[in-house]
Protein 1
Amino acid sequence: MDVDVEGIIQCIKQGDENGVQIQLQEFNKEYAQCFFIDTEEREKLKQRKLEEFKKNKVRDCTDSDSDTEEYMHEDRGLILRQNLALVLVRFIRTGVKSRLLRVCLRTLRILSRDKKILGPLVTDSALLTLAKIAGLTASDACDEACDPDCEFYDNIIATLAEAKVLQARVEGDEGETNEQDEEFPAIDEDSKSDISNVNSGDLDSISWCGSHRTSINEMHRGGSHQKVLERGRRDRRESKAEGEEVEEEGDQGEEALRKEAMKVLCNVVYNSTWAQERFSGLRLLSGLTERLSSSVNWSSPSSLKFYELRLMFLITALRPELSTQLQQEGGVSILTTALESCLEVQWKDQYECALDPVAPPISLEASQRIVEILKILFNITYSTHRQEPREEEAALYRHLVAILRLCLMRKCLLSDDTDELQGHTVNLLSALPLQCLDVLLTVPLMPDSKESLGINMDCVHTLLMFMEKRLDSGDRIKEKLTPILNLLTESCRAHRETRLYIRKHILPPLRDVSHRPEEGTTVKNRLIRLMTHLDTDLKHCAADLIFVLCKENVRRFVKYTGYGNAAGLLATRGLLGGQGARNSNTSVQYSSDSDSDTEEYRQVKDRINPVTGRVEAEQPDPMEGMTEEEKEEEAKRLIMLFNKLSRDNIIQPMGVNEEGKLVPMSGLEESSFPEEAKPETERDGDAEEADRD
């Protein structure tokens, strides 16, 4: 469906707002659930079809006429959408009625999904216009007159007419192309700049024909992939079909306008680096922060708050300086208050939220707002983990952690929402100062609470169950697991009670050692399998957790995991020689509680293979029946083979130096020449020097 931009312009010039609204409603209904998809995928599909065609032994294959027509239709649609965006940005500044304004904003939201038509939407005047409608600023968008500019619209109509002429040339017969080029000269090279390059200044003051328009010729020459509208899935936050136009008056109508403008800003900021920079330059974050801080009723079912939070998340994620600015302007306090309101927190103590076991699950709308708040808080606090907070900051973070405990313990209507909420809560907890996380353990014991040494372990147990669930996730396992593994590791280092509780759950006393440590379905088995994962970060996180549960004791670590699985972490830390954690970056002093062996383990301890960590079946002696001379000859032959492999650089013999790290044997021999192996003359010289002293 091609939008009739020329018809819309004529309606605007004639003051026929009803005609404009009808045409835009048709466009919105057709493309409400559509998204702009890169045609690179379609090119790959065509290539696969071509290869399949060639496999059928057909001599020649060219693009069909239908493909050419499809490309021409796509190019024409792009130009129409570009000009429609330009017209609507100008039109909404003329003071249109509320209902028509909402229809225009909905059209702009659909158009803003396409990166190639963002030029008219990323100017200062356009951003300020949208921000004013969204309630982020009260300043006027521009100083221009609000009356329709007939010359401006005439230029648009001329542009569309020229595009039709250019399209007619493309559709002409190839045999007549050279002659027609004489009569219809193409636009010069300087006039072929893409619309996305026109990112500064007010485009309304620029004629949209000539040097600031993408020509069809340029599009056909290639370079960038065009975008086409394709069907997408509906946003589940919306209860009504996007194509429906609902009459809303008063405050509801005003809120609907703000929400539509906020959606357009979200799309524009996400798709345009220039818009992100101008959002900072125009100081729109302050207006957004003020709106969030002045909000009173966060439990309202309206979705406007969600889009305000989504815009703030995009800005703080894409522009680090705005994340810092928000933190300096009290963003943590503002968002903590919003989080508290969304959860309707009831306080029992200074850092204890009341947890009602029969409370209803968190609603869909509230859970989505909470997730957005947690994401923003992570953006502005991720650098505080290793910092020593001031007293007032520590109190604020502890207040936040108490609310985050509630986020971990509460359930949502949908299990997927619960998992998402807990995941973002874990991410935020791992970003906050470690000393402020003690609030998670200060809750008094209840009759049905999990406990360790008299400390409430309900929150720790929830984290363990969350980690187990993430261990079963097959996709994006690194992103899902590393935050919770790091959080549990740091908590075990900081709190003895937490370490003892988690150790009982993950590393119970060894009894059956007939299988390798990585074989099986227990949490320990799955974590040890991760210790040899291809991803370096993930395997180190899993190994660190088990190492800390073993109180960073090398002997105990090897006992539970096997030397083969433990070698990676030991090599990284310089512990291959079996020494204590001399290179460890922690100053934790572990308690002296013993790791007593079970009776079953003691009975087979001498037969356990330290490399595999299990009792191996007895193997026949390969040298049985050989004479001493034959054994000596076999040993010499093996030495010669190893020497040959070493000389050819196929293998490199390695050893462990004094620091417990792997080094080549040659370097090891040179750096650590034993005293008793010194030459006789050298030892005599040392003795004489000692006598002289």
Protein 2
Amino acid sequence: MNITGVITEMSNLIQRIIAGEVSLKEYTKTEKERLVYKVLSDLPLSSILKIKQELKGNIFAKSRRAFGKIVHRDSLIPIPNLSLELWDRDPFGLKDYLACGETDKIGNFEMMYDPKAGGFGDTPDLELRIFDPPQNVFIHGQKSEFRNLIEVKIGPDNVMDDYDFGVLQILYYEYDPQYTFSYSIPDSIRHDFVPEALARTMRSVAKYSQIMDRLIQKNRRDPNQSSYDEIQKSFPETLTLILEKSHKGYTRSDDFFGERMLNGFNPVIFKKDKNNPSLYNTAFNGEKFTLTGKIDLPNYKVIFELKNGKLLPVEITLQFREDNCVQPNPPLKAPQTYTPVDGNKWLQAKRVVRATHLGVLGEVKGHLSQCHFNMEQYAIAFLRNIRKNPLRGFLYPHLKEVVHLNKFGRKILMDPEEGFFAKLEPMHIKPDMLQWITTNIGTYDWTDWQPRKPLYEGHTFAKLGNLYWNILTTYVESFFTANQEEIANNWTEILNFSKDLVQHSVPYVPLSMEQVDDGDEWYDLNEIEHSSNPRQEVNGELKAIRPITISPQPTEQDIANLKQVCKYVIYQCTFWHSWIHNEHNPEFGELKYGNLLTNGLMGDEDDESVLPGHQVASIILAVTNMLTNFNYGYILKNEDGDVPPELIKLIESKKAEFEKLRFDLTTLRSRLNS
């Protein structure tokens, strides 16, 4: 081989090293490659950077052109700022780097390359690689980058002239038209769980699926087995069971009931009683739902009183449907009101509220709606639009797995043939589940949102929320101070992000399906929609999410809006979702404490006729354990190395304050990944 060929091959090797195609330490199969490795290893960093610049410049005579356009398949909307690489395909899977580039603001791309870069005497066989932008990671304090390969487009063999790839339509976080809220078409999701997260998820699913299947098979052989006690003991012991061993009756007390409604799974935002402002209440209305007969969904209203530093229930009103009425807006039985003097009936009434508040309201509204599907709106719009803007690296660690997780959850839980809920056939309140989620999301918006104010000294959840919000405020302000110029320079991405958010937002509704306007006022509006800022109409629909910006250049208010969106998204993906998961099993993991009930609901704990069946009980405990015993993706552990050190330092600086409020910072999740 002549000297030109040697130089060309060595240059190709260096190109592949720079592009990340091969590792210097691994790719040393020949003496020539070892020599290149040795030469590069001995060079100072400045020289390596110079080589990199030259190789991306005109070291070859770049005489040929590859060009085209990349658009969304669903809408043909151009996709700007995608990173591209052009390669030559060689036999046996070998490849030669030819050029790099990116799409412009209307999705067009053009790359010049030298055909000799494919190797001496080799006419290039083209391959186009499409990447998301690089993401920074911090491993052992060292900053590096990784990239996510979106798609590979194979061009023709033996290209002799300029080549037009044409208009390339790719599936790239497309909106699923089957859903009334933002949901991504599964095949368009261009990334996966990180490998360790996926492995741990599957281990958790497999572990509890095996337990569940064993219990269900036993029940099919004998409808009276497994017993409820056996089902309960098949899963990890939960908080209420542990507390009952040392404090018999405490978890059924008024003290515990009030404290958990305030600080437990799905913590309540109370209203002030219009007839007595010193009283607080919470309510649920189940009249609009279609039922299947598997569970009951009564109306309830619980009135609380602040007394001696405690929030205590003083009155519960329940109203059930007439027997066998499953259609919406059914005839109702007369409401029944209970107070602490009613003894056993009072205990039964509290259990009815717990079952509905935890198993239905908490799961669908607090968990699925506010966490998963609310945040998917932001994640899809973010992943479709934000690439060059510094906001990419800032929010990506928190939003990177939302759309994939929701796809995974839809298959594992809701697939009509394979999902766990299919085993409950017919699935409880399935006809209205998506409508309810839609109305829930229709009440959410980032504007003027901040954590609720503490109701009184014992309101731990509110205190923690405000402590964390203050950390995020400092964190976001610092980021914008350091990056505001670059944010402004790439404002078109923010504008498109905002447009996608608003256009695909659900319609605004003042009340979700379970709410009624009873004339009572919220004790605090921080987390309740109350902004006077105007909304936008799209095709005659008033949208729930307000625009971040409508300007091609950011105004002072636009920057303030974007800061608020950042705080809102990070809070929901980290603190709120962590709280939901941390507090889920402690209350929802005991069948007799708060599991779904049926057959009129009112009954003593030992009355098994009000429980929804052995198979359903097995499935519920399996699902709650498999989805909450997933121990990966925490901010302080930073397993993937992509949480910026600044956020970790700010959180650690407040460790003593979190500990004082009895919150374990090691359980604070970095993202929605379970």
Protein 3
Amino acid sequence: MAVTSSMAESSTAPRTDRRRVAAIDIGTNSIHLLIAEVDEALRSFSVLLAEKATTRLGERDPETGDLSPASIERAFRTLRHDKALAESHGVEQIVTAATSAVREAPNGRDFLQALDDQLGLTVDLVSGPEEARLIYLGVLSGMSFGEQPHLILDIGGGSTELVLGDGRDARALTSTRIGAVRLQREFCQQEPLPTERRRFLQAYIQGALDPAVAEVKRALQPGEQPRLVGTSGTAMAMASLAAAEDAKPPLKLQGYCLPRARLDQLVERLLAMTPEQRRGLSAINERRAEIIVPGALILQTAMDLLDCPELVVCDRALREGLIVDWMLRNQLLGDRFSFQRSIRERTVLHLAQSYSIDRERADRVAAYALSLYDQTRGMLHHDGGEGRALLWAAAQLHTCGKSINISAYHKHTWYLIRHGELLGYSQAEHLMVAAIARYHRRSLPKKRHESWQLIEEREQRRTVFSMALLLRLAAALDRRPARLIGALRVHQPDDGVLELELVPHAVEPGEPVPDLGLERWSLRSCAEVVAEASGLELRVREP
């Protein structure tokens, strides 16, 4: 499943080959609206619009537990707006989920009936495990699990979901009745929290989480080391606070890694602050600042109980899960988890499509690049295998900068890839794909280039350098719209020499064999760069 962001709303009329659907998540703290456009061919969706409103349904009557009239009014106002906005975008359906605040309130079902009667909005009241399942689907749509099991922690306003999954199945789906809004209301009347109150709250959180933690641990196989993924408001806020202090803050929080030691430092600082001081933090909004302390303590306690050294942030959660679930129910995904096996491929192709890249030519360049990769191991590169997928992605996207300007398009390509959304890739891998595409033409990497400075690890720079050289050679063969090359053959007749042979594409009997003189000339123009980058003399074998 690939998800790409697009802020272009110049046309609200959906394309005839796509379908639009909206998802509304009615949570304890906020109501989220997401409008998506589903591509049936790619079996993916792109986000057209995402909005959030803080409605605080969790601020219930302290005596009866009912949703308060003020919170109901805020919710009605928001949902009326969301429904009108979704309909203006031509969605065929609005899928919804109401979570812990509504399912626990005695008047929750009356609230949902009023929404149906007055707004014509039918809302599904989901259970805790169903909420966990939808969150799991949302995270699956935004991250590649590979072969490693993942623990997903979603700290909401009224409940905390903990999921164990491996990309093929959800092994454990748990929901616990602790959340940032609920704990703020019940335990944090005095701030900063007195030491004894803090210890009591931490013990309460641990006691509440213990059954869920025990359940997911039972589902782990011996020797498995799961990766912890944090979703939703608390995790995003803590990552935002940490990222704001980084020397090179990331453009996006998706995939951001927050080490446990860093989290502990942030929690201590937040605990020492007054509410006014927290509201002055520019990295988080004022409403989040009000409830960040109990949310941060849930996160810290969960990491301790799960013995996880770091948290990886995912900005996909329940609302994206509603879209995936809609696609499943409408037979747009044959296998619930099949998209995990191709999440990287789908997100790259979706981005390429958004920039109107010629798919046939991009496929050819990618095939040339991978053929060179396989045949030049030990000559042009010493990659252990991780660079191959990055090379393919860069080859598919290397011309996207032409959508801005043909001149120096490789620089525009770097910008577009870096600022685009590549799901399933880590932040470092995302930057590497952009840099490989950036250096497929013109100069080799230089220290002053921002695209090079952002690649911090030496091994990553080595991978970018060698993959970019392979892409340069592959792109040099893409001289005409028609396919004339059938195969590439690599020879090394002598030490220090790399010889490339171009095999013409097969033709029908009686047709002339294609003349590849233009492609051979183009390859020879790369000889100087190949010598500078690898020390090898590039030769092109004549027919």
Protein 4
Amino acid sequence: MVRIALLFPQKGFFEAAFETFAEHNQFQHDFETVTEEYVLEEVVTPGSQFDPEVIGTYDVVISRGITAELFRRQFQQPPLVEIPVAGNDLVRSMEQLRRQVGDKLIAIVGAHNMLYGAEELAEIVGMRVRCYERHSDSDWASAVDEALDDGCEALLGGVETCAYAQRRGLPCALLRTGKEALWQAYTEAKKMVQVQMIEQRKSLRLRTIFDYTYEGILEIGVDGSLMSFNHTACSTLGLCPSDEGKSAAACIPAGPFQELLLSARTCENTLVPYGPLKLAVSKSRLENKGCVWGYIITFQDVTRLQQMEKSIRKQLHAHGYEAKHTFTDILGGSPQLRRVIALAKQYAGTDLDVLITGPSGTGKELFAQSIHNQSDRRNQPFVAINCAALHENLLESELFGYVEGAFTGASKGGKTGLFEQAHGGTIFLDEVAEISTALQCKLLRVLQEREIMRLGDNRIIPIDIRVIAATNKNLFQYVKEGRFREDLYYRLDVLRVQLPSLNERSGDIPILAQHFIDAYAAHYQPGAGAMQLTEDACALLEQIHWHGNIRQLKNICLRTVVTCRQRHIGARALAEVLGDAGVGTAPDASASLPEPSGGTATTPPAADSEAQRIRHALERCGYRREAAASLLGISRSTLWKKMKALQINEK
């Protein structure tokens, strides 16, 4: 709420003041940036008796004449808006007095701004006036006496002046303020508050930045005085708020830092000793139109910087466990891909464990990160580990952590395992089929009980994690061969996402290839312009058997960008890049087909060739291509292409 004080020695002096103010509040469009409510209050202070406690509660003061002059002499805050004596107010008051006294000599008594132009106006309207200027709150009597001595027969003035004139028997009238002048004063008062609030907020923002920055900041005058400084400067240099305005020579110990402050030279990131500290100091001039009026010195404690860097590195390591990708990063629009994405999104809405299967290079971690970022755990850690990349003992210590002295070479203080670091979030176990049988037993307990025990410890630590596992192996076949625990298999295989190979979604190949080429061209050939695959090049890519799937395609695109110089890449240029990659047989679509969760094998028995497997699937499905394709784990269009290539006829 914005409080405005209407200050005058007599209550109700300003006619229609509150009515005009209410009208003015209806037109706030000029004050949109200040949303506070405006209120007007009348403050009566006889003479020059201003109460600082009362005055200090207002945001702006409106007054007139000698009262305004006296207030200005005594206070700098709150700001004052002085009501102008408009020409129409002056003429109106003179005309009112002339109707009472006729064509007599009229004295006008008041402050300088009330009298300015009065004689010229009187001459225009055909009246005789003489002006008497007041300079203090007690000279009204002498002004009236002087007017009487000069032969004045009537008087215009303020409250006290008119009261004394009446006691002297002199006809008088108050010099009134009309609605026009009040309206102008209200407008100026609100604008003043508006500017004041904007400046206060700006000052507060700057002061907050000034005080809470890690750098120490000093403002030094050209005379060497400490104009201002922030909290960091206080704590580092041993200053106190009362030192503001004092000489830097008296507050800063003698030495290289004091010499730099008091000199006229500037510097940037210069190491300067200050007692036991080493400061990285920068100094620049404050100047305007060639006139230097001070210096800004910023500095940082180098020792503290080193400590901060160490702390930040720890935080970055701790916060490095985050998923960067979402489903929007998965490119392609083939039906096979859309079905898998829809299923993965549906799984993301649950908190159940997920098993992602599919050939190598199909983007299993991309799906794992997307599921995490779509889940309720999105703001928690995403910890990923490749189980095939570490030796059994090292993998166990990484997953479960260890206490100090657990084994030879164990770090002092022990180590937090990845399961603990994933607490509240998701852990992604890539290549889970490669975990040893012994470690599988411990992993089973984690999945069952959601608790772990560090190596060398006897304390159980509960954890809240979601497990997403991935493999390119046939886990069910591993179970049958005794290479993977059956109970762990069914613990992992709660929800399954089977990713299609790149050839099963061949329609996405041109989209992916162009995306990779655009990305690599921007990085390796910046400014050279876009590289575009032609239609025949895209057709060639769709004919290749991508044994390495998307990973292989990315490598081919990278090789293309690095070796090709033309902007439009045709089939011939692409074939040169492909080399042996463009030659090969169709991948075995059923070789990596996982068994269903129920444990009953539905894939055809081992066959001597891909043609035999396809014929067997067709026979089992009554030569219904859609069912046979589903049984083989490939799309209907892929099955049709294989049948055509292998000359398999429908019966």
